[in-house]
Specification:
Elements lengths: L3 E9 L3 E6 L2 E7 L1 H5 L6 E10 L4 E6 L2 H10 L7 H10 L2 H9 L3 H4 L7 H11 L15 H12 L4 H12 L8 H15 L1
Parallel strand pairs: 3-5
Antiparallel strand pairs: 1-2, 1-4, 2-3, 4-5
Helix pairs in contact: 2-3, 7-8, 7-9, 8-9
Length: 194
């Protein structure tokens, strides 16, 4: 697959750009935000994702790898193809999209053309545990708790399992516990509950 392209910008339209890569003009579909950063004749590097269908091979370009990774992740939800995924990133930056999915913010997701309430609900259900964001941060919640929660998600546990383990070990902790000790205890709890 093609991970990125670099070269002078040969042309720009409303939905795509042509990058001259070693004498070959590669047409790359881009969001309006990415296109706005490109200038004809200037060198550009775009992170890319190639979508192969029976009748086409389309290259989608992004300003950075975070956008590309979100583009590829949201397509794993049923009913989300590359055009809807690109529309999601045109309306919402990756962090805001990640938060909307993680927090189940249907109002934000339905701002995207092509996503209705049922589609937004399906996206949240299918991707909530995979975006690395959980329910809204509780005011005054200790920072160590967020760190342990993120670590558990990074180790592959679901948000629900991480929350349950933290509830079990949080009562034993003081005001400023050692994060590594709390993480170890949470992992022991998860291993016992399996």
């Amino acid at each position: 697959m093609i991970a990125h392209v670099r070269g002078p910008v040969a042309a720009v339209t409303l939905t795509s750009a042509v990058i001259d890569v070693g004498g070959v003009g590669m047409q790359i579909m881009c969001s309006p935000g990415t296109i706005a950063q490109l200038r004809i004749g200037q060198e550009a590097q775009l992170s890319t994702s190639m979508v192969v269908r029976e009748d086409s091979m389309t290259l989608y370009g992004f300003a950075d790898t975070d956008e590309r990774d979100m583009f590829e992740l949201v397509q794993t939800a049923s009913g989300v193809g590359p055009k809807v995924a690109q529309a999601m990133l045109a309306v919402l930056d990756p962090d805001r999209l990640r938060r909307a999915i993680g927090q189940g913010d249907l109002a934000t997701l339905t701002m995207v053309p092509g996503i209705g309430r049922k589609g937004a609900e399906r996206i949240v259900v299918e991707l909530k545990d995979r975006v690395g964001v959980t329910s809204k941060v509780v005011a005054g919640q200790p920072q160590w708790r967020d760190q342990v929660h993120e670590a558990l998600l990074g180790l592959g546990w679901s948000a629900r399992d991480a929350d349950a383990a933290l509830e079990k070990v949080a009562a034993e902790q003081g005001d400023d516990p050692d994060v590594s000790v709390v993480l170890r205890e949470a992992l022991r709890t998860l291993a016992r509950d399996r």
